[in-house]
Amino acid sequence: MFMESVMKENSFIKHFMVIGAGTLITMFMGLLTTPIITRIITPEDYGQLSIFNMYTSIAIMVLCLGLDQSLVRYYYSEKDLKYRSGLLFKCVVVPVLSTVAISVIVIILSVFHIIEFEFAPKVIVLLCIHILFQLIYRFSVLVVRLEYKSKLFSLLNILSKSVYVGLALPLMFFIKIDYFLSLILATVTAGLLCLLFSIFWQKDVWNFRNCTTQISVSFKSLVQYGWPFIISMGMTQLFQAVDKISLNYFCTYKEVGIYSSALSLVNIFAIIQSTFNSLWAPMAVEHYENDKEDCKFYQQVNQYITIVMFGIGFSLILVKDLLVLLLGSEFREAAYILPFLIFNPIMYTISETTVSGIVFMKKSKMQIVIGAISCLVNFVGNSFLVPVYGYKGAAISTGISYIVFFTLRTLISNRYFYIDFALTRFYIMTVIAVLYAWYNTFYQFGVISVVLYVICVSILLLLYRRCASSGATYLYKMIIETLKIKKLKGEDNEK
Q1: Cα–Cα distance between 81 and 74 in angstroms, integer?
Q2: Taking Cα atoms as reference points, which of 366, 371, 355 lies closest to residue 232?
Q3: What is the DSSP string of 195-228?
Q4: Which residues, in sequence order, are CB contacts of 360 under 8 Å at separation 6+?
């Protein structure tokens, strides 16, 4: 059992590094292009694009009907291709038909001005098309993750960013159409190409002509497991969007744009967050199906990701004033928003390791409770803090809400499947992180910021010293082995 756990960890790290490399390339592309885009467009345009993407995310989470989560939960029940293809068909057909029907209605209401929406009719049409593409892509990229096709996943991320940048910049520079519309067209086109590419490279599982719908899991079972996610994921998306909605209500598109630019800087975390989340859910379910008694694997991964997330979080806060130099001069206030926004990726990513009990025991209804309470906390926090502190208030409220989100996921999950995650030291680090974020939200960078950073990282390494030591040893051995392999290949080539 111990050896299997070690092998599982090594496999996880291998896939993690492959996907991480692709995400790293995507991040650097973003770092190169974001300064250009934010110097061309206004904060108002950037704010509108943020709202456009927010509506897309909310719609997908609702229109998936929770069946994307059902696909993850039941995918490993059987290894037969016909079963997996049939399961995919059962999960995807109803969401697609529902999306098409609702999109037609919304477009008619917008084009004929029966209802005046926030965006112009042409933008509404693009929004509906984008939602449909992204919904199908949601299932397609899930299959990529479930099959552990790490290289394909990385290529899709790179393709998405490349197409977006390759289309957005020429549209704004040379054609000089509406900047907001340029960004939307680039976003929709990138989504479509990634969708087609992902389906093409997985055409076996997407070939529904050879699948069987008479699989061991009934559609009723899929719906029973998935339907709570319609509410819980919708609430989670609302929870994640309350800050922008509050700024949009109390302030202007300019404040939303500055706030969103700070979020784009926090997306540096995407190297870890998206990579980890892409691998962890399917790997945790597969591990549970193979060995329901082994908890050591979950504990060790939890400790590793805790060190990584807090370490990067502290580092981002330290260099926040340098990061905002990448943005246009109108976006420089984003530096004071960033510190509390780091709790989004930190708490969400680490909670993915502690929420497993809810998934294993199929207690998906508890996700509704978690989403509802977290959303309420964020709503109340934004209602009080945004009118007083503006975007700083939105960031503080969101950060605190994510700590509540982590706590709820962990405590409720442990009721059904207990795992000792050594939460005392985790909350010690959380309190330290909150204090460090608070200082850097209201004070400029200086010697005190550096001293506090050293203290924070030292405490982190002290509390998780065993895990940090074993992780460093593993990375050292892996680097040495890689260098040896390259050296041997070089010697063989010389011969």
Answers
A1: 13
A2: 371
A3: HHHHHHTTHHHH-GGG--S--SS-HHHHHHHHHH
A4: 285, 288, 292, 416, 417
Domain layout of the chain by residue ranges: 1-25+242-481, 41-217
Q: Which amino acid, 98? A: S
Report phi then psi at 177, rounded to 5: -85, 180
Q: Which of 313, 314, 229, 328 is nearest to 272 (CA)?
A: 313
Q: What is the pTM of this model?
A: 0.71
CB distance 23 to 157 below 8 Å: yes
Please name which of 46, 33, 31, 23 lies closest in space to residue 167, comparing C-alpha atoms: 33
pLDDT in tens, the chain (495 residues): 444 444 455 566 666 666 666 667 776 776 677 667 767 777 777 778 888 888 898 889 889 888 998 898 888 878 788 888 888 999 999 999 999 999 999 999 999 888 888 888 999 999 999 999 999 999 999 898 888 787 888 888 888 888 888 888 888 777 666 778 888 999 999 999 999 999 999 888 888 876 666 777 888 888 888 888 777 777 776 777 777 777 767 666 667 777 766 766 776 666 677 777 777 877 887 778 777 778 888 888 899 889 989 998 999 889 887 776 666 566 667 777 888 888 988 999 999 999 988 888 878 788 888 888 988 998 898 888 888 888 788 889 989 999 999 999 999 999 998 888 989 999 999 999 999 999 988 888 889 999 999 999 999 999 998 887 777 776 677 677 766 766 666 655 555
Q: What residues contact residue 431 under an 8 Å CB cut-off, 6+ apart?
A: none
Residues 137 and 191: their CA atoms lie apart, in Å, by 8
d(C-alpha 96, C-alpha 196), whole Å: 16
d(CA 31, CA 264): 10
Q: What is the DSSP letter of 291?
A: -
Type of residue numbered 97: L
Alpha helices for 147-269 (secondary structure H):
150-170, 179-200, 203-206, 219-250, 253-266
